[in-house]
Amino acid sequence: KDLHFSYSEEKPAITGLDLSILPNQLTVFVGKSGCGKSTLVSLLMGFNQAKQGEILFNGQNALNIDRTSFYQKVSLVSHSSYVFKGTLRENMTMAKIDATDEQIYACLEQVNLAQFVRENGGLDMQLLSRGTNLSGGQIQRLALARALLHNAELYIFDEATSNIDVESEEI
To answer: Which residues belong to any copy of the ABC transporter domain (predicted)?
Structure first.
């Protein structure tokens, strides 16, 4: 409600934004580079705080929501999603600690990554820190699969498919 944010006093990034995002609805923000899309994501995720106005989730001010509880309900996939050193299974179970192999593979199938994983050691495939042994598109697919496994109430995608080919982007 009436959201205002600026990185500096002389150049506001968001001015007077009123927005409602309804459950079970796709909401897309489209605009030129630098128009404030990622800034809005940063505000929604609590990485930055609005100078004025408030962000409400289910009627509750976001500033009053416990961060752990919030992150259990919201999943962010961005162009810079992180891959941790360890197995692919370990990277996936960060989203859902008790996930079965079947659940993990179902999410990998949805993002067209399952076959690659099967051909490269399965869920025990070793991943290097920052995913340096994966392509940019594979990192983003992995991040998307991890988000799907999380089964969040709200998904926020910020250029989440920028490194993925057009065919796969239609997932």
So the answer is: 16-162
* Listed residue (36, 137, 132, 133) closest to 79, CA to CA: 137
Instruction: Determine the 3-state secondary structure of 110 from DSSP.
Output: helix
DSSP-derived secondary structure letter, 164: S
pLDDT tens track for 113-123: 999 999 999 99
Residues 106 and 77: beta-carbon distance below 8 Å: no
Question: Among 43, 164, 154, which residue's Cα sits nearest to residue 112?
Answer: 164
Burial class (CB in 10 A: 0-12, 13-18, 19+), 31: exposed
- Determine the average pLDDT of the residues in 60-85: 86
Distance of CA 73 to the CA centre of its chain: 12
Q: Token digits for 142?
A: 């992995």
Amino acid at 166: V
